[in-house]
Specification:
Chain lengths: 160, 295, 788
Amino acid sequence: MQITVTVNGAEYTRDVEPRLLLVHFLRDELGLTGTHWGCDTSNCGVCVVLLDGLPAKSCTVLAVMADGHEVRTVEGLAGTDGSDGLDPVQRAFSDMHGLQCGFCTPGMLLTSRALLDRNPDPSEAEIREAISGQVCRCTGYENIVRAVRAAAERAGTVTS
Amino acid sequence: MQVPAQFEYERATSVDHAVALLQRYGPESRLLAGGHSLIPMMKLRIANPETLIDINGLDELGTIRLDRDEHGAQLCLGALVRHAELLASAVAGEHFPMFHDAERVIADPVVRNRGTIGGSLCQADPNEDLSAVFTALRAVAVVQGPDGRRLVPVREFHVGPYQTVVEDSEILVEVRVPVRPGGGSAYTKVERRAGDWAVAAAGAALWLDGGRVAEVGLGLTAVGADRFGAPRAEEFLRGAPATEESFAEAGRIAAEHCRPVADQRGPEDYKRHLAGELTVRSLRRAAARARGLEA
Amino acid sequence: MTTHAADTTPMGFGSMRRKEDARFLRGKGRYLDDIVLPGMLHAAILRSPHAHARIVSVDTSAAEAHPKVTAVITGETLTGLGLAWMPTLSHDVQAVLATDKVRFQGQEVAFVVAEDRYAARDALALIEVEYEPLPAVVDATRALDPDAPVIRDDLHKTDNHIFDWEAGDAAATDEVFATADVVAECDLLYPRCHPAPMETCGSIASMDPVSGKLTVYTTTQAPHAHRTVYALVAGIPEHKIQVIAPDIGGGFGNKVGIYPGYVCAVVGSIVTGRPVKWVEDRSENLMSTSFARDYHMHGEIAATKDGTLLGVRVKVLADHGAFNNTAQPSKMPAGLFHVFSGSYDLKAAHCAVTGVYTDKCPGGVAYACSFRITEAVYLIERLVDVLARDQGWDPAELRMRNLVRPEQFPYRTALGWEYDSGNYPQTLRKALDLAGYAELRREQAERRARGELMGIGVSFFTEAVGAGPRKHMDILGLGMADGAELRVHPTGKAVLRLSCMTQGQGHQTTFAQIVAEELGISPDDIEVVQGDTDQTPFGLGTYGSRSTPVSGAATAMVARKVRERARIVASAMLEVAPSDLEFAKGRFHVKGDPAASATMAEIAMAAHSDLELPEGVEGHLDATCVYNPPNLTYPCGAYVCVVDVDPGTGQVAVRRFVAVDDCGVRINPMIVEGQIHGGLADGIGMALMEVLAFDADGNHLGASFMDYLLPTALECPSWELGETVTPSPHHPIGAKGVGESATVGSPPAVVNAVLDAIGVRDADMPLTPAQVWRSMQGRPLRTDVAVT
């Protein structure tokens, strides 16, 4: 069936099978391979995108369910203030070494962005809770938490 | 990765339309709400519906409101209310803190953005949390079918693991929770890790009359309690002094009457122990809340 | 301690932002499943539902009739090509696709190639396989029973025995035990667990029918080893094979081996004439690719009555699954397990390891274990705690008293290892101080008096990493050396080519920093190339924490070679003898005349110019190096874990975790700390939740992330790190390797803490709430079987 999804601000109309998963729509139809997949059971969270502004596991959403909705992926995170610059959370992840293999990173970045949009000054406990549906095997989460804190602390000088 | 088998897809534009679609496509069709139980099962090809009827557009099922009429007040939760919305709902938390206790430990924050309370209830997983919460609260399910709406007490809603009274051409539209002043409630869960299904969990709603228990509701999950309930423990508590001794005895009764099954989350004796232990903890906390000693 | 990136790029060692971050932050990494080749087909594997069954028939006709299916490959197809079986890394063979029997649940039976991934999956349901189920051997402790079904009849075996292997001096050890004042013993299961990188394993094979060249994109930690194995297995000439590892979403040992799906993808490409992509799903990853551990151990420790440790004796039953595919140095079927005397000065030690087949998936390779050192450290660190408990000794004091002393290095252990360097008492003291050990014990006593269960666990580990010296260690006959090639371009920028392959460790940054340290070229000006066998020198890859010890040494050595060539060029430029030049801060200058100097960029340009060079000196500025390590490096660490246990539910909360690591010189401290953080989380996972259990029929009970639990941010505390630095005396830059240290060292600290809290002598991992509660009742569960 034909669907139209707004992804990172641009409208895409495609004819898809109803069973096509949103993660495959993004990766295979639109070539946005920054959204990864890591399990089949919505446990690992490497496929997280923002669906109408809220983190969602795109391996457990059908593309047809996103028809008429807005999706934001990691590719849409940089330059959202009109510049080519990185989002503060992206910069903070690099500064604080919040990523290693990079596979969970897109989902972690998007969840962090959504958290900060809702709660600009989250505590460590709130950050850990927010990312608790997403698994990272490399960082032991420590530097992800520090990165989100650093992004929050810097937000006073950078608009997001 | 694993992918679902092929199916037909329809989008309902109203509850009546959803019911009509269910009638048209018959028993091999399934309603699609948050999809966070159904889609993984379809990927694993454990569930293979021929048609999915997407009800995500039915905004009228997504509200939380407090209704007052001559019989009193009731909290009405639309079937499409997302777990995250229930967790964020001040009115739900104000009247029944156990909603927030439970929602904090249901799946994970991202899944809670999509998963719905109606989906959880209708999935009828024997380890599911809200079934126990609604059982404790003596909630009433509103089910709509071709012949209109009917009310089903949640305590009669489940007919077995993964089975409910909702017929093939019916849809759960709302869950109503009667509101009575002077109560407190709490939910306590043990899980192996954040986001896991319960090893065991217990919820308690308690209304006090002085030092005594005026009314009580208990709900247990993952321990093989008949329809998530603990009626004998409730019976014991009703009218009993609201003391540690009473709660301990209620926990003992609740544990005695459940039928846990061993799995990788734990052996039978441990789950039975938790049924009692968590019942006591929830009662203790519910009583403290009823007394205004705890938020 | 908190380390984060410096604002300016260091000219050498120091914390700096990773060069690889730029692409990952933007979603521009290029992982295997991101790669799309023209005309590429997609594959899926049909797997056995049975743990042990004879295959009666395989009917693929309906699948072949599917309009989008291009090919269906079965064991019969492969038999015709001589590829139905492939050699394992341990002198065994493994079925690529089953022909006679299936020997574990999830074993590969048929391979479907289709136009898209959805169709490939659909077609699996159209293949009909008739099985005749056989009784399964699931419990390793029953595998050698006389009436146990024989799994490997293909090898004409009459039992399930694989090997017996010993290390140490049995007689001397028995003597020590016979005369010891006190002995403690304990049964310990290190349960089967899984590396479970977030990216699963996969491969894209593309055979060019015209040139005969096979290109394989694959998630491999060891691209060169893979190429050689493909050549040996498939008979394709090695120069016609190019293996390319793209960005890898975590490896942890899971991406060392060659899996049947990879071989099938190659066959699929040959059969169809088109590129074929196969990527496993998560269930396949957990059910069929390399697991870790599965060691059933009986350990004994002997001591004097005043607390001097004397010896350790251990018997191991090693479950290797249906095919012996463990990836260890060839002469060491139990890997480096015989480092189990740990960090203590013992008189004698001995182990006997027996390997057995079971109807479970093959492997025994992986998960950041440094070749079975995880099991060894768990054994000794649990035994020390058990002994301390039996005797009423403080476990930290007992360790301190028996640690190898600084003046004993290089220290030869009772099992023959030569530890290179360390100051163990200093490392342990630092950890105890950081933790506030004495204060913690006081707090524990107070809480106990109130009925609260607080536990303090200590572990001390010695790792042995950087395999390895060629005379001792090889894999499939390939010596464990690594190459490096460095070329400085005319403008002074450089390219470094490595044989190892990052899976998130930050090689692009760290290795550039090594060159920067040696040559004074900014890390930003150095391109690091890895993962492509056509672009890089030969070497055995990244696992066993060997990249810094081996490839890092190769990099330092090749940079020094380039520096010496630069000296000759500079001597021609400055018209002095090479010996009259000194090198500092990226430039050569004439001794006593700092103004007469040439920068590396100036030297590089001159090396490519018409400058007349001394007779016999070639132009340009480059070098190659192969580094054959003279010894392993021996990092160490002391860990302290503090837990609180809920007495009513058995739930464990890890309150604090203090980790003091000594990995020698730290090239990029920020990256080192990140590596340690990840390993500490692994320890939480293995100690508290991760296990691959099987029921009596051989059904896999951890085949998805719903059942195989990995720690989240909520189970992990904020790690408290400290460091000591004792450089490796034989490594060119004194570095030791750190990637697996925390995974190796942390599980016993967590287990010791939990058992300390509940006052229980021993119980097996994972310490789930149920296991903790049952242990408190005196009835611990056996954790590797179905809970009943």
